[in-house]
Design brief:
- By secondary structure, the chain is an alpha/beta fold.
- The protein folds into 3 domains: about 5-170, Pyruvate-ferredoxin oxidoreductase, PFOR, domain III (Pyruvate-ferredoxin Oxidoreductase, domain 3, 3-Layer(aba) Sandwich); about 185-440, Rossmann fold; about 445-555, Rossmann fold (3-Layer(aba) Sandwich), CATH 3.40.50.920.
- The protein has helices at about 15-30, 75-80, 110-120, 125-135, 140-150, 155-170, 190-200, 215-225, 235-250, 260-275, 305-310, 325-340, 350-355, 420-435, 435-445, 470-480, 495-500, 515-525, 545-555; strands spanning about 5-10, 35-40, 50-55, 70, 90-95, 105-110, 185-190, 205, 230-235, 255-260, 280-285, 315-320, 345-350, 355-360, 450-455, 460-465, 480-485, 490, 505-510, 530-535.
- It has an 8-stranded mixed beta sheet with strand order 6-5-4-1-3-2-14-7, sandwiched between helices. Strands 9-8-10-11-13-12-18 form a 7-stranded mixed beta sheet, sandwiched between helices. Strands 15-17-16-19-20 form a 5-stranded mixed beta sheet, with helices on both faces.
- Helix 4 packs across helix 6 (about 155-170), helix 5 packs antiparallel against helix 6 and helix 7 runs parallel beside helix 12 (about 325-340).
- The chain is globular, with a radius of gyration of 25 Å.
- The two termini are about 30 Å apart.
- The model has no long low-confidence stretch (mean pLDDT about 95).
């Protein structure tokens, strides 16, 4: 098998997420590209949770709704997912929890008995199943042991004993061959975003836990000593954004992360950034709303919200990366643009991108061409908000001897002194808004803002944004179509987009929302949309599902 999928399931609290990550690391070690889709309820314990681990000899970043092996820690997993199996007997299950009547299928492991024999804690059940999987898949014990030692930081000895017992108790079902690809790191989208922010010069990160951006806070806190970061878990999202703006005032590059509900609380701070011209990066992890909605599921519903959020008029930069490499690259670029233009940069993520795991290849990332920050030349009196041709005033940071550096949320003059004068108000409004013209010109000339994949001669194109990019790209290559992905969504790169859809007669928009937000956006710029494929049940589009929907349009 050169492209196969494994589903592992149990109840919340069984360590399904950790187990799937370890299996992904094992398969990556023997040369496979990995993508892991996670599905879990908003419960700490109880409720069904599962992951689909897809492995391929080629780069993949989307899941399929068909599986080759089913790993079950409880009967519910088999009852819910057995129909996805290509061959009905490819089970590996905990026989102390799962009773299969009639013909015995696959490999049953009495995990409760193994734990009792080894006097092992209940949390090692998932590791026992991993050991059984490796034996059933023909993966040797030394490889299994090596990855377990690398990925389990605590109580490794008892985990190894239980995994070895599971390995010895299993039967061979198939042989997964090694691939000659070099092993790649397997990262979540949140981790890729975090590394990209660091590459862009991140000094400080503030956050309040909110799925799906919580993982970014946890990751950056873990690597803070290594990269000399200040990472703060604040009491709420209002504090988060105000802390970040305070960091920016002192010259520290700061970022924050949140989801829709938290972003609502940040909106006054966002407008403060617009008026005070303080640079900030906001990672907005979308999930199913409105309100609490489905807090652990996905959606693409905040596109217009990101573009139009806040009161008053001011320039902002909005991007939506589609996979781990793009997440890394555009997070760094977003930081650079925020600081050059002294504006908010908003990185639109979602649960699918943020929490899925991807094989990450740094060699596939473009060279970072970060914008140069404009600083005070010291040749004249310092004016924090001096008028310039592109609206960007030179930066200077406290403390400075004999220099006043004033920022203001009220309307102000060039020195930052509060004013209500109509002429100054008009000039300051024009100063802030004209940044957008120069920003758009720079990104159109300097960056690949719109990507095009597949058959460039096709007159049928899939139009997507964010995490739908990988599934659209895979199908456009299979079906001989084109995929167009605008990564920068505001200011909208109309020139690049027009070139990307040149010759297209049928534009099919693929989105995970109910109203077709990207479709409306491109129509606002005068581009026609012929079909829309919309999914809004909180789950991402699988390869199988999207192919079926595309075929209906093509026939």
């Amino acid at each position: 098998m050169k492209d196969f999928s494994i589903l592992i399931g149990g109840k919340a609290g069984d360590g399904i997420d950790k187990a799937s990550a370890i299996i992904g690391q094992i398969l990556s070690h023997i040369g496979y590209y990995i993508y892991i889709h996670r599905d879990y309820p908003s419960l700490i314990r109880g409720g069904h949770t599962f992951s689909i681990i897809r492995a391929s000899e080629k780069k993949i970043s989307a899941h399929k709704e068909e599986i080759d092996i089913l790993l079950a820690l409880n009967l519910e997993t088999i009852n819910l997912h057995h129909k996805l199996l290509k061959e009905k007997c490819f089970y590996i299950y905990d026989s102390s929890q799962v009773k299969i009547e009639g013909q015995v299928c696959g490999t049953g492991i009495d995990i409760s008995l193994i734990l009792k024999q080894e006097n092992a804690p209940e949390f090692t059940r998932n590791v026992c199943l991993i050991g059984a999987f490796c034996k059933a898949a023909g993966i040797d014990w030394p490889t299994t042991e090596k990855i377990l030692k690398r990925t389990i930081p605590k109580q490794i000895e008892i985990n190894l004993k239980v995994a070895k017992k599971g390995y010895e108790s299993a039967s061979s079902l198939l042989s997964i061959e090694k691939i000659r690809n070099n092993p790649l790191p397997v990262l979540t989208g949140n981790e890729a975003i975090g590394l990209g922010l660091i590459a862009g010069g991140l000094d400080a990160y503030a956050g309040y836990p909110m799925t799906p951006s919580s993982g970014l806070l946890h990751f950056l806190a873990g690597v803070a000593p290594q990269f000399n970061l200040q990472v703060i878990h604040a009491e709420n999202e209002i504090s988060v954004i105000l802390m970040a703006l305070g960091f920016a005032y002192t010259g520290k590059k700061a970022a924050v992360g949140t989801s829709g509900g938290g972003f609502c609380l940040m909106n006054e701070g966002l407008s403060l950034a617009g008026m005070a011209e303080l640079p900030i990066v906001i990672v907005l992890g979308q999930r199913t709303g409105p309100s609490t909605g489905l807090p652990t599921y996905t959606g693409q519903t905040e596109l217009f919200y990101a573009i139009h959020s806040g009161h008053g008029e001011f320039t902002r930069f909005v991007v939506a990366p589609g996979d781990s490499e793009q997440a890394y690259y555009w997070s760094a670029i977003s930081m650079g643009i925020a600081w050059k233009y002294q504006i908010p940069s908003i990185i639109l993520s979602d649960k699918t991108l943020a929490e899925s795991l991807f094989s990450f290849n740094i060699e596939k990332v473009e060279n970072l061409n970060l914008p140069e920050i404009i600083t005070w030349s010291q040749k004249s009196e310092y004016k924090r908000y001096s008028y310039t041709e592109n609206g960007v005033s030179p930066l200077l940071f406290v403390p400075q001897k004999n220099v006043v550096i004033k920022v203001n949320s009220y309307e102000h003059d060039e020195f930052g002194i509060t004013t209500e004068d109509p002429e100054i108000t008009k000039k300051m409004q024009e100063k802030r808004t004209k940044k957008e013209k120069h920003l758009l010109q720079e990104i159109e000339e300097k960056y690949q803002c719109v990507n095009s994949y597949g058959n460039q001669e096709s007159d049928v194109a899939l139009l997507c944004w964010g995490s739908n990019m990988p599934v659209c790209v895979e199908l456009s290559e299979r079906l001989n179509l084109k995929t167009v992905q605008p990564v920068v969504l505001h200011p909208f790169p109309s020139t690049q987009f027009s070139k990307a859809i040149s010759g297209v007669k049928k534009l099919v928009v693929v989105e995970c929302n109910a109203t077709g937000q990207l479709a409306k956006l491109v129509q606002n710029y005068g581009f026609p949309v012929h079909h829309k494929i919309l999914k809004y049940d909180g789950r991402p589009l699988s390869v199988n599902e999207l192919e079926e929907k595309i075929q209906r349009i093509l026939t």
